[in-house]
Design brief:
By secondary structure, this protein is of the alpha/beta class. It contains nine helices and ten strands. Strand 7, helix 7 and strand 8 form a beta-alpha-beta unit. Helix 8 runs parallel beside helix 9. The longest helix has 13 residues. The mean pLDDT is about 95.
Amino acid sequence: MMSSMIPQHSTIAVVAPSGIFSEERLKKGISLVESWGYNIVLSPNLFEKHLFMAGTSSQRSSDLSAAIDNELIDALWFARGGYGTVETLVRTPLEDCNKPILGFSDATALGCALSNQGKTFVHAPVLHSLEDLCDQTSQEALRRFLTEGKAPKINVSLLRGDPSPRTGGLVGGNLCVISSLMGTPWQLRTHDKIVMLEDVGEPAYKIHRMLNQLKYGKLFSQAKAIVFGEFKSCAIPNPLSFTEVILDALHDIDVPIYIDA
């Protein structure tokens, strides 16, 4: 058995480096996590608003940095995804961060920056979505991972390439956010890594375009494998399939490709 990712009775700070969230949905997510035995603290600027983000970039960066620096905080959890995390990265002391940080969607920007430094990032539901959008099976799998260190088994099937077993560190996250980091200091490093990708609500042509961007940006050329997770509510026009879109975009790379089974 692995050790606990975040032992019960730990203190978790709620941070909002991205979009404006529903307070009602956030409260539901917090209540669920508290029922798992965790102490939740709210960041000072959590309920601020600026344009379509949860506060100005300085407010969001301040909360993120304070939670990382605070010795009484054991972990950080994103309130919501959306957009805005990339603005906080230049002001955040990532080199000092040795705490688990949880989130998905726009949290991928911070996840890429941390994984590039060999630090911990947990690709997990944001608190805003934990109660309303995740089924009980997913919630229980996450709870067991955090409290008991039991990672859920991921079932994938080989779509194309060498079937030999592959080992390596896991990196990745949201496809759209990863593609938006190309050319920045936080561009994902994939050398000898297994790259895992997911997304939601993107039409086929955008998925194709983003995969080409990553391919031509050499993100796949030194990876051990590419794994496609769930691409939910993505508009794939008939008679095309999601796998056809992937295989067409990545037809000329020599890296094994797996897909969610």
